[in-house]
Amino acid sequence: MLIEMHAPPKADAVTAMPVYKRTGKTGIRTTGANRVMAEATTKRMAWVTQVAAVRDGRDKAAFAELFAYFAPRVKSFLMKSGASPDLAEECAQEVMVTLWNKAHLFDPSKASVSTWIYTIARNRRIDLLRKQKRPEPEDLPWGPEAEPEQADAMGLQQETEQLGQALAALPAEQRKLIERAYFGELSHSEIAAETGLPLGTIKSRIRLALERLRHTMK
Amino acid sequence: MKKIKHHLTDALLMGYAAGSLPEAFNLVVATHISMCDTCRAALAGFDAVGGEVMLDADPVDMAENALAAAMARITDTPRPERVSAKPAGGVFPAPLRGYVNGDLDCVKWRKIGGGVSQMVLKTQDGASVRLLRIPAGTAVPDHGHRGTELTLVLQGAFVDATDRFAAGDIEVANEDLNHTPVAEQGMDCICLAATDAPLQFKGLLPRLAQRFIGI
After folding, report:
1. Topology adopted by domain A11-140+148-217
2. Residue whose C-alpha is closest to residue A212's, from A6, A58, A24
3. Domain coordinates of chain A in residue numbers?
4. Distance from B126 to chain A by nearest Cα, in Å?
5. Chain A residues with CB inside 8 Å of B41's CB?
6. End-to-end CA distance of chain A
7. Which chain B residues are Cβ-neighbours of A96 within 8 angstroms?
8. pTM to 2 decimals?
């Protein structure tokens, strides 16, 4: 089933989406103890619907909702990465404008909206603070773009949520190290030498997402 | 593409996802990922960590008119396109073509001795990156490293004491490794090599030459 791209970005439209049940280790379950997870995944799917509404409908209300949630977080991230409040404000606005202009490039089966916005903000930070361009990998030589499957998008959003919760549950010291790395405070050799970075935890959490991505790239 | 055996390290993937690598390293990482689906998938995971870190940051209020200001800057005219894949028959992935202004046939080689040629690519931030052409069967002088050296094979293959490195493979060397890479017979070996500190050659002559060739 394809994602309903023309649906208005209302929360109830999202919660009404069918729930996909699967078997196997990447199975999605939305019952019992996983209710919190299901709600958080629903929130992520709402972002996906909002980006789709911006893409297809030039939907300003959906954009305003994304702006209200993400712009203050982008601004905070940039300030923690060394930008002044004025520069961070300016740059956060630009990041959101980029979201509007590049909405057609977003693929919810490969990234959560939070991940995608992060990569835009990070690249803008490199532009502005280090005055250099960032070489990006070339796109995969796919044929005509297929619309991502709803179940793939759901799975990826859920796995990103699981990753976020695993990071939140880490001991404070380890979390602090990860934050320092992503705020640009650790050089490559410091990351390589830092034994306190919970790379094992990160990798065990992102493994499912990786398997899925590798599968979709075959 | 044959199966790639030597991949990026977690530290490089995290550094690239965090945006803290020098430009020269970014170029090698982006070029490898263009050739390697395993590392492309791993990078997506490290990018996702960045997204979660950003979500977790305490929100900072935007200016009152921020949304209106952003809306005023939105244009519905030409949107930036994707970074296109390399054309059929090309050797260099897109990020590298951007630095060479073309493919392998556009490289301006300069001989640096021993049959080896190079082209230094312009980057900022201390680290340096160059294309190397090592004729089939030729050795690069024995050298060690003070910092980190990344060597990505684009064509052909080389062998050193640690293993064989073929197209798409990347060797990540640090101060623990002294090596003498030798290009395999049959085809010139083309590599993209970046370092964040000068290499240390063992012999006197290469050390003298180093002053002039800037490795």
Report:
1. Rna Polymerase Sigma Factor; Chain: A (1.10.1740)
2. A24
3. 11-140+148-217
4. 12
5. 210, 213-214, 217
6. 21
7. 70
8. 0.85
